[in-house]
Design a protein that fits this description.
By secondary structure, the protein is mostly helical. It has helices at residues 5-10, 27-39, 56-70, 87-98, 109-122, 126-129, 145-154, 171-187, 192-213, 221-226, 229-243, 252-262; strands at residues 19-22, 43-49, 73-78, 268-272, 275-280, 283-287.
């Protein structure tokens, strides 16, 4: 694939000044590092070693050598993630806990499309279907995965191919290798740009609903009943997500059950992981598992 670096940079959103990049060693993060060195003279590559794969120290050295060749500094951070359920989600949470707050990540348009489809099958509402929110921390979000691979090829940068990205036990990999290609075949076109545009539309709607929902007290049954259903749902969503320990906001089915409690149809409902919403004197409250 032929690319022009200046054209790619025009589609990127790198902030000014020194840049810190999260670099796993894959094509996306390596391309992020390469492009960062094209726009800033002060770039640091930060590699997080999860200790999950064998020879992970060799991966860190691999990133170090690449950073050195590009004139970037390097930092390696070791964390420990125990094997078990939800390994991918727990590893991601642990990784972000040790990375700097404003670290740049190598999310691409293909990641965006996969995230939207994952949100769809989870039953997410406006915010989930809005996908990854564009920001200066995700400067290559408009680039495609083929383009990040082409960047590495152009600069003679080798990159690590994580075997876990092929493991169909992970839902994202099923989306990447099975569902999205099938949808492309059915529609006879590349759906990634379509999903990107859809996310932009939904994100605008989500921002409007969030602003309106902040005018509603999510614990007050009367206010919820008087509000438009979409606004009441958004108010409940944010209330639960802010108060319940969970990586994801509640799905629409959970939110509608809480609305049923607010409208006096039922007295209480489960909202996941042992948490409940109960009603007393037309006031809602969230009850954690330890109090049930």
């Amino acid at each position: 694939m032929s690319i022009v670096i200046s054209d790619l940079l025009n589609r990127c959103t790198f902030p000014e000044g020194p840049l810190e990049c999260a670099v796993s060693g894959g094509a996306d993060s390596m391309a992020l590092l390469v492009l960062a060195t094209q726009v800033s003279s002060e770039v640091k590559a930060i590699h997080v070693d999860h200790g999950i794969r064998k020879n992970s120290d060799a991966e860190a050295d691999f990133v170090f050598q690449t950073a050195q060749s590009l004139g970037a500094t390097f930092e390696s951070v070791a964390i420990e993630v125990q094997p078990g359920p939800n390994l991918e989600a727990r590893a991601r949470k642990a990784r972000y806990s040790v990375l700097p707050e404003n670290v740049l990540t190598g999310h691409t348009a293909d990641d965006q499309a996969e995230t939207i489809l994952l949100a769809l099958i989870r039953g997410s509402a406006w915010h989930g279907l809005s996908g990854i929110r564009p920001s200066l921390q995700r400067p290559i979000l408009k680039l495609r995965r083929l383009e990040t691979e082409a960047v590495c090829q152009k600069f003679n940068i080798n990159y690590f191919k994580d075997p876990s990205n092929e493991d169909l036990l992970f839902r994202r990999n099923q989306i990447r290798h099975q569902i999205l290609p099938l949808l492309n075949s059915i529609s006879d076109r590349d759906l990634v740009p379509i999903l990107e545009r859809q996310a932009d539309i939904l994100r605008s709607g989500a921002d409007f609903l969030k602003a309106e929902s902040e005018k509603v007290n999510p614990t007050n049954c009367d206010e919820l009943s008087e509000a438009h259903t979409a606004v009441a749902r958004e108010s409940i969503r944010n209330w639960i997500w802010e108060n319940r320990d969970d990586d994801h906001p509640p799905d629409i089915a959970t939110i509608d059950r809480v609305l049923a409690v607010a409208s006096l149809e039922i007295r209480s409902t489960d909202i996941g992981s042992g948490w409940r919403v109960e009603r007393t004197n037309r006031v809602l409250r969230i009850v954690p598992p330890k109090e049930i």
